[in-house]
Amino acid sequence: MRDAVRGVAQHFPTAIVSGRCRDKVFNFVKLEELYYAGSHGMDIKGPTKVSNHKAKADEVLCQPATEFLPVIQEVYETLTAKMESIPGAMVENNKFCLSVHFRCVEEAEWDALGREVKAVLEDYPKLCLTKGRKVLEIRPFIKWNKGNALKFLLKSLGYAGRGDVFPIYIGDDRTDEDAFKVLRNMGQGIGILVTKFPKDTSASYSLREPAEVKEFMRKLVKSNGIKKG
User: What does this protein do (predicted)?
Assistant: First the structure.
């Protein structure tokens, strides 16, 4: 998969947009030529390696929720202590947002976990709670999501408002819907949802699993090579 992503990045500006902390995502992917948008797009940085594409890496930096860092840390410490009583629960600090994972929690405990999280957040009106796949996401109450991150990246690359650009966004989470909606509203590019089952989505197409995503990226690179030839 890393080779497939590397191949795409050689031909097109490529970004990883994730709910996880940007540093964690980079340490997992380990490709310096990519743009990384961590914390649901609230922490964006350009490539650390010279890129073939227009934006200057050191100019692509966006952190719209910096003022919330002390509050996020405070809530992280409180929730970590609270979740100790629920076996399998894990609180992940993603710098500008938090994730409370309950994939390994007994289903009978899910409601109790949700109540505990909501009780903590009652004291923090500037934080909002959303639900992902067996995870509760806690984010600053600002108008910023993966869709905003996509728009920021397009603008930074000089692609905003251009008719000769075709953005492709691939994702498998509810939070990716914000980016799918941006592309649908633009009437340009496509969103691709990764799922084995039919779902309500703003994406235009779907792939069933990561193996199909990898094959799609390889074909994208191959077709671009043929076009240039």
Answer: Removes the phosphate from trehalose 6-phosphate to produce free trehalose. Trehalose accumulation in plant may improve abiotic stress tolerance.
Tens of pLDDT, residue by residue over 49-82, are: 766 665 555 566 899 999 999 999 999 999 999 9
- Treating both helix axes as pointing N-terminal to C-terminal, what angle do 110-121 and 69-83 enclose, rounded to 10 degrees? 140
Residue boundaries of the structural domains of the chain: 1-64+144-224, 66-140
* Pair of tokens at residue 35: 């743009």
Which residues make Cβ contacts (< 8 Å) with residue 84, sequence separation at least 6? none
Helix, strand, coil in percent for the chain, rounding step 5: 45, 20, 35
Q: Return d(Cα 196, Cα 34) in angstroms, integer.
A: 28
Query: pLDDT (tens digit, 9 = 90+) per residue, 161-211?
Result: 898 999 999 999 999 999 999 999 999 999 999 999 999 999 999 999 999
Is CATH 3.30.70.1020 what the domain over 66-140 is classified as, yes or no?
A: yes
Q: Which CATH architecture has domain 1-64+144-224?
A: 3-Layer(aba) Sandwich (3.40)
